[in-house]
Structures are given as structure tokens and as C-alpha cells.
Amino acid sequence: MTDTAWIDAALTSARPQAVGALLRYFRNLDTAEEAFQNACLRALKSWPQNGPPRDPAAWLIMVGRNVAIDDIRRTSKQEALPEDEAISDLDDAEEQLAERLDGSHYRDDILRLLFICCHPDLPATQQIALALRIVSGLSVKQIARAFLVSEAAMEQRITRAKARVADADVPFEAPGAAERSERLASVAAMIYLIFNEGYSASGDTAEIRALLCEEAIRLARLLLRLFQSEPEIMGLTALLLLQHARSAARFDADGAVILLDDQDRSKWNESLIAEGLALIDKAMRHRRSGPYQVQAAIAALHARAEKPEDTDWTQIDLLYGALEIMQPSPVVTLNRAVAVSKVKGPQAALDMIEPLASRLSNYFHFFGVRGAFLMQLGRNDEARTAFDRAIALANTSAEAAHIRMHLDRLQRDSQPRGKKAGK
Amino acid sequence: MLYAILCYHDEDTVGSWTKEQDAAVMKKLAVVQDKLAKQGRLGPVARLLPTTSATTLRKDDPPLVLDGPYAETKEQLLGFYLVDCKNLDEALDVARDLGAANPGGAYEIRPVGVFQPGSVEP
Q1: Which end of chain B is more exposed for a tag (fewer CB within 10 A), N or C?
Q2: Type and span of the H or E element at B48
Q3: Which of A339, A321, A401, A345 is nearest to A368 (CA)?
Q4: Quick check: A102 pLDDT over 60?
């Protein structure tokens, strides 16, 4: 790797800790971000000559703080700026001081920084954009690209979100245990949202949006390093890793969806699967189950099956049953029905989802799944009606194309009997 | 003499590499490894999964199981090589070659006492 690539990676990895600490000093997001930017500029000048510091985050915090304090002094007293070298030439003693200052705090600093981004007043998309900008340090351009919107629109979205959180009253004292665990839950939910934003992309944009999945995994790993004994954070990280492991097999060359059963499993990423399985193993030992662990356990059963017919659907049905109790939701029941169809057949599965009809009347997957069950039962006309409704509700062109494939199959199946293709 | 070359690096930094950067580093390292393998000097090589997947067993009485890696340090053990070298100087040369391919972090060079090649497949 070249010098600059190494420095880029070091700056990116130090960012959450450094911005988090600077936010604690200055209690203002803009000042903290600006201080970090200034420290980065100095790092780009100093590190190639003097070599990288042993602890990049501590270096950036110290330099960022000094520069910002000088800026504040300069604007208030109109004093001359001190020599550049005087600030950026930190000796070891100061570096150690910074480390001591931050060692005990940095866990809460990073958590606070993430937590600010999940302010309940912010809509999900703004939370995600803000976290990617502030915590991950992605450029507005990168974020705009991942969200498939213009740079100007994204700039505006982030500015608005920042203005909102600036008025929010997030306490800066170290949080108590209950407060900390609440923050952790909000932050985990936000990381899950970031991942979903990338994961739900359609085939033609999946590659651009994979960035969101990768960033979510990076944040989940970061959170897990800070809270090593939290089984739900292990579960969350495992879930993201196991889902992302399938990304190369989820779409065909034209960007059409490939269902789990039809995926080329040799394209699944073994190393991500190994890490995900290791984490869910660790989490289970704690015997404190939770929704992320259950979802990860379901993903793990899919990952462990070498062939689709090896899948342990009975266990998956049980796990969805557990999830229904923890997080009652028609969408969970719909997913459970797919497992039920494999274990007890399509009629049992259909009976299970009928009561959901009113609540999922605008949900694409409800009609896709319903159509598939009806098709398996040979009730082709009803299946066609369900698929037509699904197409009308499709969110992406890939989803619509996938349903159209089912319709084509129905049409082929009905032709040999001499009937006119239904429409 | 067999030497273990233990690879330490800041996991945050390694985790911040893009897929392309990671692949580029692995490719450069493969060149060094191929050279050693051709000379018949390369033993097992392992890259460990992130420390978040680590569990530590403290051999207290009773033994204590802890989540996470053993040492809470800035730089973590991320992998290792076993290499056959005449002496420390040669082992250091190998480590320098590896270091040129993958700068940053540190290698700890440890002579190996007992070595059983084992029989597991990757």
C-alpha cells in the first residue's frame, strides 16, 4: 500500500474516537468536525515526513484540540497564530497524556457520537446519512451516490439533520448503565438500518450500495470491540456478516433477483460466514437471547446448508416462532410461513398468512409469497391475481422482473392444456 | 530452526482497508510467500478472524471464559507464519520482506520449540 493509502486508512479508523473525544471537549458538532479536519490536514503534512505516530487517534485529538483552541483565541483576541510546526510536533509525553485522557472515555465518546445520529426526531434516512457523514467520514458525494440522489440534495439533508441534532440535548457526562444500554440499542438499530438500505438495493444498483453494507459491518465491528460481552451486538454483527456473505450470489448478470434456493452457494463469502458463525456461537453461550441473535441464528442455518435441501426448515420455523414472541410483526409471521410451507406444505402456510391480509395489503412480499403458495397448490388463477398485485407494489425493477418470471411460468404451464394464456 | 513470525497490527486500521486495498496487500504478501515456499522453507500460514470473534479462557480455578482477545492492546495478533531459517538474521530478513509488502504494525519473531504439522485441511 502506498503512503497516502495507509494514512487514509489510519485517518478513517481513528475518526470515530477522535471526533467523539473532540465533541466531548467542545460540546459542538461543527467545532469538533472542523477540529478533526484541521488535524487531518496537519497529519497529511507531518506523517509522510516524520512517520506515523504510534497512536494516530491520540495525535489527532491533541492536534485537533490545540488548533481549535488557538482558533477560538485568535478570533476572540485577534492574536497571531503560532507556528505550524510548534503545534504539530508532539512529543511522546503529550501523546501519552492524550491517551490517558481518552482511554477511559473513548468507549462512551464513540457511543455518544453514534447516539446523536439516531435522534428520534430524525427520519431514518437522515439518521443514516448523518452517521455516514459524521462517524464514518464518507464524503457527501459518496453518500449521495449510495442513496442515488444528487449531491446537492444530500448536502441539504445532512445540513438539516445536523441543525436538528445541534438543538438536541444529549448529556455529556458518562452515562449510567441503563442509559448506556438504551443508547446501545438505538445505535444497533441504526446500524441495522444502514445495512438494510444497502441490502434492499436492486441488482442494477447493488454494487454502488454495497458500500452501505460494508460501512454497517465496520460500525458493528467497532461497536462490538467496545462492548465485547454484549450478546445482541454479537448477534447484530453476525447477522450482517451472514447476510452480506451472500451478496455475490443474490443477483444475476442482468441484475435480476436470485432466490436463496437458486443461488450458487460457491459464490458465498466463506470468510464472512466463518466470522458470522463464530460470533453467533459466542453469543449463544450467554443464554440471553434477543431479536438480532435469533435472526442471525436463522441466517446461520441457511449459511450452514451446503445445498438448499440440507436447510433445517424445522429449526428455522421454531426460531421465527421465538422471534414472533420477541417482536410480534406481520412481516415476521410472513417469513415464518415460508419455513412452514417447507415443513408442513403450502396449505398450512397459506392458512397462516390469510389473517395478515388486511395489515399487509400494500406489502409487495405478501403478495409475492401468497402467489407462490397458491401456485404450489395449483390454484393458478388466484396465484396470477396475487402476482399482478405484487408487480403493482414492487419497489424495484428487479422485484417486478422476478414476479414476472413466475407469471411467465404460470402462462407456460397453462398453455399445454389448450387454454388461452391468462392475463 | 523454525521461526514463528507473529503478525501484530492495529485492527482498526486493517479493518478500514477497502476490499481492493486488502486484496492488494495479500497479493504482495503472496509474492514473498511463494519465494519461501519454492525454497521449501514455508510452514503453515494463518490469518486470524477479527478479535471480536475471539474468546479467552483464563486458567484460573475455576477457569474463566471471557469475550474478546487476551491482551487489551493497540495492536493485536492478526496472524502468523512458520518459516525455516538458519538463524535470527535470516528470520529478520524474511520479516523485512513481509514488512515491505505490508507496512505498519510489527512482527514478533519467536523460535519454535515444539512443532507438530498436524493434518487439518484448510
Answers
A1: C
A2: none
A3: A401
A4: no
Task: Give the span between the Cα atoms of A145 and A351, in whole angstroms.
Answer: 43
Residues of chain A neighbouring B74 (CB-CB closer than 8 A): 54-55
Q: Is the pLDDT of residue A417 over 60?
A: no
Q: Which residue positions in chain B have pLDDT lower than 70?
A: none
- Alpha helices (H) in A169-268, listed in sequence order: 177-199, 206-226, 231-244
Here the ipTM equals: 0.84
Distance CA A189, CA A160 (A): 21
Q: Do B12 and A224 touch (CB under 8 A)?
A: no
The b/e string for A22-57 (b: 16+ C-beta within 10 A; e otherwise) is bbbbbeebebbbbbbebbbebbeebbeeeebbebbb
What is the rounded CA–CA span in Å between residue B99 and residue A163?
46
Q: Which three cell numbers stand for residue A245?
A: 456473505
B50–A221 C-beta distance less than 8 A = yes
* Residues A122-162: tens digit of each pLDDT: 888 899 999 999 999 999 998 998 888 899 999 999 999 98
> Which part of chain A has CATH 1.10.10?
107-167+180-228
Residues 6+ apart with CB under 8 A from A364: A390, A393, A394, A395, A399
A-B interface: how many C-beta pairs under 8 angstroms?
A: 63
At A95, the pLDDT band (50, 70, 90 cuts) reads low
Pick the CATH number of A107-167+180-228 from 1.10.10, 3.10.670, 2.60.40, 1.20.120: 1.10.10
pTM of the predicted protein model: 0.86
Q: Note whether A127 and A119 are within 8 A (CB).
A: yes
Higher pLDDT, A9 or B78: B78
Burial A70-87 (b: 16+ CB within 10 A, else e): beeeeeeeeeeeeeeeeb
- Rounded CA separation A178/A185 (Å): 11
Domain annotation for chain B: domains and CATH numbers: 2-46+74-111 (3.30.70.1060)
Residue of B13, B15, B19 with shortest CB distance to A221? B15
- Is A308's pLDDT higher than 80? yes
